[in-house]
Amino acid sequence: MTYIEKLNAIREQMKADGVAAYIIPSADPHISEYLPDHYKCISFTTGFKGSVSTVVITQDFAGLWADFRYFEQAEAELEGSGFELVKLKVQHMPEYITWLGENLAKGDTIAFDEKLVSVVLGQLLQRQLAYKEIGFLHKDYLSPIWENRPALPTAPAFLVSEDVVGQSVSEKLTAVRAQMQKLHADFHLISSLDDLAWLFNIRGADVSFNPVVLSFALVSATQATLYIQPDKLTEADKLSLSKNGVQLLAYDTIAKDLQYLPAESAILIDPKRNCFALYKLIPHSVKQVFETNPSTHLKAIKNSVEIENTRKAMIKDGVAITQFLKWVTENVGKSEITELSAAEKLKGFRAAQGDFVGESFNTIAGYKAHGALPHYASTPESNVAIEANGLFLVDSGGQYRYGTTDITRVLPMGNNTEEEKTDYTLVLKAMIEGCKTRFPKGTCGYQIDAITRRPMWDYALNYGHGTGHGVGYFLNVHEGPQVFNATATPVAVELGMITSIEPGIYRPGKHGIRIENLVLTIADETNIFNEFYAFETLTLAPIDTTLVKKELLEKSHIDWLNAYHENVYNKLSQFLSEDEKTFLSKMTVAL
């Protein structure tokens, strides 16, 4: 079926049910950011392959709401599909709800698959559209028209040992139960796959790039039940979980168990990380406690084992990045390099390091104008050759058995303009500004975001994405609860958190520049004013300095960069060949 035929087929079903609007979110029953193929509903319906968007269909309009990162990509991918791009004014805001209120008649009905909508979104739709007396219908209009829909993944899962993660499952359950007790909750429903992976020390391959396993959990003061396809685990792993107080039940039996929770008990639910369908199964006699999953906060604070192992992963990743930079520099203009072949070459360098499991996200390799698309993913149709001029942006990451990496570097290919040099220097200055910040305990991400942007604001420059996101430990590359962006999220930046710092400048049709390191929050100084924290830069890879305009940097930025490069050389050189050492020595020469 063509996209227009799919759209017409959906509208026919809507007409038969008397439905005025149908919503398709980018989610699964676990409210994941990255989805198994079975739940890539928006890609199936519209052809848009970005990771964050929402589709709304009426009889006379079909729109896809996406943010700044996807404007150009969506325009291209939606062409001829019958869907049009609606540009979000504020990232992550459900602005389509306002549109629905303005365009639907009083008493109309909206349908959506409640398995793909979070509790908070389901309640928001009901609340914000109550003035229009809108009705809601739980409906899946895609399954009837989705021929050969991919099955749910069946890849095996495995447990990671305590000496790799630093804590046993029983210790983690004890910590979660302590938080449940504080919230007076008898039960706790967990659906988010990274929380489940952390809590049960389990990893798998059910979602591209994220080593997670499709599962649910129900935790009480005395029992922890993991709902998972039983054949995913070995008998040894099942026995290990049992010894840690975990019973296993089939993945789809969670729905039945929720319906039989004891009357007058209380259940802890994270409304952002559980789906509306499961929430609605909970008996009305059960009190609902809405709070963030305790594991979300516990997981973000890395223990000493996780921190030390992450440092080891960074060395492996830094060696691979150095080898990649050397390969590009020496081969551009001599043999054909394309965006796709460069990404594949980089993956090969990482794979050669050992303990490499896979990429932590789809590599963003954007040459020239493609670099101006912050979430660009090269395809055979868009792939271009890298030439000996302009800028080449590469944002990539690796999953290692003891750490997750995420790094962005920009390679000057030659004949660079003054504008490119200025932009590059200001992005570097902003990144350094964020990395070298000292801040008092209790500081939140939006404050770090503003500090990082200041060198660019001085030149009336800005970027439309956040400055940083939390990063998991051999887990999701995007991890909460901390985030460095303009939203006033009241989450403090705590000791042990690993976060990215990645400012950028994007000039459509010309170039994109983003430089990214991961940082660890560490203790710095305590005095009569407060406890002060700082960042230890974990990422170990050279930053090209050939475009840097020193006059735009302050002494503190130059000192930071020189110290960083000295550390990079000292940490990586022992793992490099003589040729590679010579290359790294030139890349890290002091300014």
Care to describe what's here?
The protein is of the alpha+beta class. The protein has three domains: 3-145, Creatine Amidinohydrolase, Chain A, domain 1 (3-Layer(aba) Sandwich); 158-297, Creatinase/prolidase N-terminal domain (Creatine Amidinohydrolase, Chain A, domain 1, 3-Layer(aba) Sandwich); 301-587, Creatine Amidinohydrolase (Alpha-Beta Complex). The protein has 18 helices and 28 strands. The protein has a six-stranded mixed β-sheet with strand order 4-3-2-1-5-6, covered by helices on one side. A six-stranded mixed β-sheet has the order 12-11-10-8-13-14. A four-stranded antiparallel β-sheet has the order 21-28-27-24. Helix 13 (304-331) packs across helix 14 and helix 15 packs antiparallel against helix 16 (445-457). The chain is globular and about 65 Å long.
Short description:
This protein is an alpha+beta fold and about 600 residues long. The longest helix has 28 residues, at about 305-330.
What brief labels describe this structure?
21% strand, Creatine Amidinohydrolase, 6-stranded mixed beta sheet, Creatine Amidinohydrolase, Chain A, domain 1, alpha+beta, 591 residues
Our count of helices gives 18
The largest sheet, given as strand count, sense and whether it forms a barrel, is: 6 strands, mixed
Mean pLDDT: 96
Measured between the Cα atoms of the first and last residue, the distance is 58 Å
How much helix is in the residues?
25-40%
The coarse silhouette is globular
